[in-house]
Design goal:
The complex is a heterodimer.
Chain A (H helix, E strand, L loop, with lengths): L1 E4 L24 H5 L15 E7 L5 E7 L1 H4 L4 E6 L28 E2 L5 E7 L2 H8 L3 E6 L6 H4 L25 E5 L2 H7 L2 E9 L11 E7 L3 E6 L4 H11 L7 E4 L15 H12 L3 E4 L2 H6 L7 E9 L5 E13 L5 H11 L9 E9 L14 H18 L3 H8 L18 H12 L5 H5 L53 H6 L3 H4 L4 H5 L41
Parallel strand pairs in A: 2-13, 11-12, 15-16
Antiparallel strand pairs in A: 2-6, 3-5, 3-7, 4-6, 8-16, 9-14, 10-11, 10-13, 14-15
Chain B lengths: L2 E13 L9 E7 L5 E4 L9 H13 L6 E4 L17 H28 L6 E3 L4 E4 L2 E7 H12 L4 E6 L19 E13 L5 E11 L6 H20 L31 E6 L21 H13 L5 E2 L3 H10 L15
Parallel strand pairs in B: 3-4, 10-11
Antiparallel strand pairs in B: 1-9, 2-3, 2-8, 5-6, 6-7, 9-10
Helix pairs in contact in B: 1-2, 2-3, 4-5
The chains are: A alpha+beta, B alpha+beta.
Chain lengths: 566, 345
């Protein structure tokens, strides 16, 4: 392993003479880590600690007729068995903190399960072994239902409904479409003019984050009617806000401690452990631990979700890509968690780091009867980057070009217009390609060797397409998925406060962004050229009933209205 | 029958921070009476070095040695709100919040020093070694410790600062996808060399040549650990890992590390990394965030290298020996491509 700097690139954009920045300073926490003494959540010991284990569905999809905990309750060491009705507010969607999506997932299933491993009850016992023994004694009367596991099967008419909140098995974007659209120029017209059409289908299977430390939390009653919670979360206030919502508890009665985590990679943002551990502490008056074993981590812990991508390119003989069309399916599993967000992120990333004058994408968040998916390193990007870059290799083959020359020919440069209608800046793809080619001894064309991210961008390449083909495919009415990122929408709806809960987050978010943002970032990113002449006509008015239904909101990190920017 | 070498290439960019913005982070900085600083965060250190990189950023901004700063994470009673450690947002968002907080604390420290030295605070500079002096007149100086002591015990000032960084949420046009996803991107290109065994279908990664552009390497050692580990994860994703080996069929799901496959020490390939730094205009000292993107180019590069070696396109991850052998059979044998050989055009 070697790492070296190529300081000659972009040297005039840097000051390399700083005191601390750029120094290989030893990590503040390294001694604790390498001597095994850094305290993680599980190192916080309590007298009388109780252990929580979940009763899980053996079926992909089933109605729950009855949960009988009688025998489990009388097992040795069992203090209490929790079921769905014990959870003060047993329905949530993680991104409700951002006013995005509809509450769709119980902490403990009550009426049905939608994936193998979904929890239906939780045993609290003196030891983990006793909790496991009692889990085996909880009897559930199942009514097994047909299930669906393939994303394209799941969206066909007549497919089993995975999540009743989204009866078509698709998340609804902006209260309007059953997918996220990207429309830039006219791909069909460009395909007709292209010398070659290159098509591909790409599939990424689910992947486990595989941290050494499995997900978990320990909660205990504190003095002053509060609860302390030691947690492995990657997002302390996200987990705190989620727990406050599910437990109908003011956030300041919760004291979360974390900060040192044994690897996360995205798998520790779902905030399932903290609410159940705290609920256990509330109902037993004793410290409770809820942590996954390795099997749970791998099979019921949310993985990086599977993605399926179809790509179709229109390519000219000289290697220029003139049109690129995507159809993408994110396999969200049984509930939304964070997949809805990843898709918008993925769509903003298309068509990859290339300047292509016509781009089209339909990307679907699809529900299937499998473990819900969540974040993982590269969330929303890793899967489609695999698809794009494997596809680029095919394009290179079709036009008979060196794959690195093909990338540099199509690479985005400073000032180019991107498909999400903002100008590219601070680009460096070409330079990375050149450095690798040089190191690996791959001979590039002279034009590739002489190319630069700083030159030859903008101008014609900054121009928005004269015509963009729009459509209303997949339009849905009568469903309100929140004001998050909603264009001109969401403002009419008042955030709904939980009973007894004041909303400090919403209150502070009401400040104008100019005060809240200390850096010129907002101004810089919104400095795109005016789109007024080419922006498509405004969408039709929202369905009449949108916004009428009170939303199941709790502590919100943003109240959206007043915060949105172009 | 035999071993076939192939080379594959991929290039990527990666958006830094939560998509669309709307993801604030805060920081609080304060000094002990003797000029030792604490940065209070609720951000999480996953092992990526959150505490260390924010510590260096705070020290740089305050103008004190890094030993004079410690970072405390994460206690909801003492650390102000942070959205969390994900989306490559830690260095960028939290780093900017720490800069703002440290600037405010620094300003108080310099005002205190100015009062002690009877000069204008605007004329003062720090040397990063624990001293404050008049610009151009190093002899007119006071230590940061003495300035902080004077602030707190003589002048009644708190040497403290508050910081927040927020990129306001962008809206998304449902018709066109028009949006402002992020404010900066990191970049990478990578060429991987593999060896494919056409009898067993096994792939071994022999060598990786990469270039990563990540704004500024705020701490080169932390960057190196991310890039080395991330590329390992990328090759692991490409060739080994999945919880559902026959997706969308749910059978044969691994439940432990005996069955959840990952490359071991003997599978790790030499990795020759070059770092380019094009500072992000809104990044903390130009930093972007190498954490997530470093894995991404490896997946397609490995798939492309397998094709280069034996002529089989595997478009479904992971690239298992079974898929390769089936592909070779369907192709009627191995068909090496060799498009990226040294010196080839």
């Amino acid at each position: 392993m070697t790492m070296g700097f190529r300081k000659e690139f972009f040297a005039d954009e840097r000051d390399d003479n700083l005191n601390e920045i750029g120094k290989p300073t030893r990590r503040q926490d390294i001694l604790g880590h390498v001597t095994g003494r850094s305290p993680y959540f599980d190192d916080h010991l309590f007298d009388g600690l109780l252990h929580i284990r979940c009763v899980r569905s053996p079926h992909h999809h089933a109605r729950i007729r009855r949960v009988d905990t009688t025998e489990a309750q009388s097992m040795p060491g069992v203090v209490r068995v929790l079921v769905g009705r014990d959870v003060p507010r047993n329905l949530n969607t993680l991104l409700s903190l951002l006013d995005f999506g509809i509450d769709d997932e119980p902490l403990l299933a009550e009426t049905k399960v939608a994936y193998k491993g979904e929890p239906v009850a939780a045993v609290i016992a003196e030891t983990e072994a006793q909790a496991r023994a009692a889990v085996a004694k909880v009897r559930v009367d199942w009514d097994v239902r047909p299930h669906v596991l393939d994303v394209e099967e799941a969206i066909k008419p007549g497919a089993p409904v995975v999540c009743e909140v989204y009866p078509g098995n698709k998340f609804i974007y902006h209260g309007k479409y059953d997918h996220q659209k990207l429309r830039y120029g006219d791909v069909e017209a460009a395909f007709a003019r292209a010398d070659h059409i290159v098509e591909g289908r790409y599939q990424m299977s689910p992947i486990e984050q595989a941290p050494i430390e499995t997900c978990g939390a320990i909660a205990a009653p504190e003095t002053n009617d509060r609860y302390v919670c030691y947690t492995s979360t990657q997002a302390l206030f996200f987990s705190l806000g989620t727990a406050a919502k599910l437990l109908t508890m003011p956030s300041n009665r919760l004291h979360f401690v974390g900060g040192t985590v044994g690897g996360g990679f995205g798998g520790k943002v779902d905030s399932l452990h903290e609410p159940l551990a705290i609920l256990g502490a509330m109902l037993t008056g004793r410290p409770c631990k809820f942590a996954w074993d390795r099997e749970e981590e791998m099979q019921v812990g949310a993985p990086r979700g599977a993605e399926r991508w179809y790509i179709k390119d229109g390519v000219m003989r000289d290697g220029r890509i003139v049109a690129r069309k995507f159809t993408g399916y994110f396999d969200s599993g049984a509930y939304t968690r964070l997949s809805s967000y990843a898709i918008i992120k993925g769509v903003g990333h298309l068509p990859g780091p290339y300047t292509i004058p016509n781009v089209y994408a339909d990307v679907y968040c699809v529900y299937t009867n499998r473990t819900p998916a969540t974040a993982m390193r590269g969330f929303g990007i890793t899967g489609v980057d695999f698809a794009i870059e494997a596809h680029m290799d095919k394009v290179a083959d079709v036009v008979g070009m060196n794959p690195i020359d093909l990338r540099i020919l199509n690479a985005y440069r400073d000032g180019d217009m991107k498909a999400h209608r903002r100008e590219a800046k601070n680009c460096a793809l070409i330079e990375c390609c050149q450095v690798v080619a040089e190191k690996a001894g791959v001979a590039l064309q002279a034009t590739s060797r002489g190319a630069s991210s700083l030159r030859d961008g903008g101008g014609e390449r900054a121009r928005l397409p004269a015509h963009t083909a729009l459509d209303q495919k997949g339009m849905v009415t009568g469903i309100d998925t929140g004001g998050y990122a909603r264009k001109g929408g969401g403002a009419s709806r008042q955030p709904v406060s939980m009973p007894g809960y004041s909303m400090p987050a919403a209150a502070s978010a009401a400040r104008p962004p100019a005060q809240a943002s200390p850096r010129p970032a907002a101004a810089a990113t919104s400095a795109a050229p005016s789109q007024s002449s080419t922006t498509p006509p405004p969408p039709p008015a929202a369905p009449a009933n949108a916004g009428d239904r009170p939303r199941q909101g709790a502590m919100r990190f943003s109240s959206i209205s007043g915060l949105r920017r172009r | 029958m035999g071993l076939h070498r192939g080379r594959g290439f991929a290039a990527i960019n990666y958006p830094i921070g939560m998509n669309l913005g709307g993801d604030p982070s805060q920081a609080l900085v304060h000094s002990n009476p003797d000029g030792k600083f604490t940065v209070a965060l609720s951000s999480i250190d996953l092992g990526q070095g959150m505490k260390s990189v924010t510590r260096q950023i705070a020290a740089e901004t305050l103008g004190v040695p890094v030993a004079d700063v410690y970072v405390d994470t994460a206690d909801s009673d003492t650390g102000p709100h942070c959205m969390g450690s994900f989306a490559s947002r830690g260095t960028h968002r939290v780093g900017n919040a720490v800069i703002q907080a440290a600037k405010e604390a620094r300003a108080v420290m310099l005002e205190a020093a100015a009062e002690e030295l009877e000069v204008d605070a605007a004329d003062l500079v720090t040397d990063g070694q624990g001293n404050i002096h008049v610009n151009g007149a190093p002899s007119r100086s006071i230590t940061t410790m003495a300035a902080c002591q004077a602030a707190q015990f003589k002048q009644g000032r708190t040497v403290s600062g508050r910081g927040i960084f927020l990129i306001p949420l962008s809206e998304v046009d449902p018709e066109t996808g028009e949006m402002t996803p992020v404010s900066c991107f990191a970049h990478a290109a990578l060429l991987v060399e593999v060896e494919v065994d056409d009898e067993t279908g096994e792939v071994s990664v022999r060598d990786m040549q990469s270039a990563y552009e990540l704004g500024r390497a705020l701490n080169p050692k932390l960057v190196e650990q991310q890039l080395v580990g991330g590329a390992w994860m990328g090759m692991s994703h490409a060739l080994w890992e999945t919880t559902e080996p026959y997706y969308p069929d749910r059978s044969h799901g691994p439940v432990d590390f005996n069955h959840y496959l990952m490359p071991g020490p003997g599978d790790i390939a030499p990795h020759h990394i070059s770092v380019l730094e094009r500072p992000a205009p809104d990044g903390p000292y130009g930093g972007k965030g190498p954490g997530e993107m470093c894995a991404n180019p490896v997946l397609p590069a490995v798939a492309n290298a397998v094709y280069d070696a034996v002529g089989v396109r595997i478009d479904e991850l992971p690239i298992t020996p079974e898929k390769i052998l089936r592909g070779i059979r369907a192709n009627g044998g191995v068909k090496p491509r060799q498009r990226l050989a040294r010196g080839a055009r």
